Amino acid sequence: MSLAKYRYVVVEGPIGVGKTSLARRLAQYLGASTLLEKPDENPFLAKFYQDPVRHALATQLFFLFQRGDEVRELAQMDLFQTGTVSDYLLDKDMLFARLNLNEEEFALYQQIYRTLQLQAPAPDLVIYLQAEPQTLIDRVRRRANSYEQTISESYLQRLTQSYSDFFYHYDAAPVLMVNSEHLNFVDSDEDFDTLLRRIGEMRGPREFFSRGQN
User: Fold this and answer.
1) Which region holds residue 83: left if phi is over 0, alpha if psi is between -120 and 50, else beta?
2) In a domain, 152, yes or no
3) Using CA atoms, how far apart are residues 52 and 46, in angstroms rounded to an integer?
4) How many domains does the chain have?
5) How many Å apart are CA 102 and CA 155, to the nearest integer?
6) How confident is the model at residue 104 (pLDDT cuts 50, 70, 90)?
7) pLDDT digit string (tens) for 116-127?
8) For residues 39 and 103, is the Cβ–Cβ distance under 8 A?
9) Coil, strand, or helix at residue 144?
10) Is 135 domain-assigned?
11) Can you tell me the distance from the alpha carbon of 98 to that of 106, in angstroms, rounded to the nearest whole number?
């Protein structure tokens, strides 16, 4: 099946939903480059999960400046020659800022965001992975990243709702919404092949896929 028209694909969704694993497998299948988040480079992230109120602004600003470098990196990639699969949407930084910052911090964040003038190309396709907060908690616990072990289910509930609100309004690129509750794109060739077929069949700007659909 040819997915050649998708030169820049983004896999998105809340923490623990499996976006990085799927992005890597898609990139391997497509012969594309990867552009992956680097949360381990953020020195404030572990502190944020322990004390969100105190460390939210520093965490967000570090990610914002990191995104600036990544926008420049993406601009230099030859999307038409090799293609790129990313495990994050550059636009979603604002989602986390709204979720985690107080009013004054968010105003400062917006001012810095406007000053940086980050302009990333729109993806050809966004795959938005969804799962219930308890499923996300279970997956986060299993992968045992030390800085993630203090993430609460209440935070993941708010994050899941923020993603839902974000993609309700998002129209910059076609979106395939995927219920990943009972799908395993890494270990199941059948699930991965079904997803590929579903991508190839997309006709509208916003479609939905879950186990049991043809």
Assistant:
1) left
2) yes
3) 10
4) 1
5) 15
6) very high
7) 877 778 899 999
8) no
9) coil
10) yes
11) 7
CA distances from 40 to 44, 145, 147 (A): 10, 10, 9
Residue range of the domain that includes 198? 8-209
Helix/strand/coil (H/E/C) assignment for every residue in 101-129: CCHHHHHHHHHHHHHHCCCCCCCCEEEEE
Which residues sit opposite 35 in a β-bridge?
Answer: 86
Domain CATH code at residue 137: 3.40.50.300
CB 9 within 8 A of CB 124: yes
Helix (H) or strand (E) holding 176: strand 175-179
Q: Other CB atoms closer than 10 Å to residue 209's CB: what's the count?
A: 20
86, β-bridge pairs: 10, 35
Please indicate, yes or no, if residue 108 is contained in any of the structural domains: yes
pTM for this prediction: 0.91
Q: Residue type for 12, please?
A: E
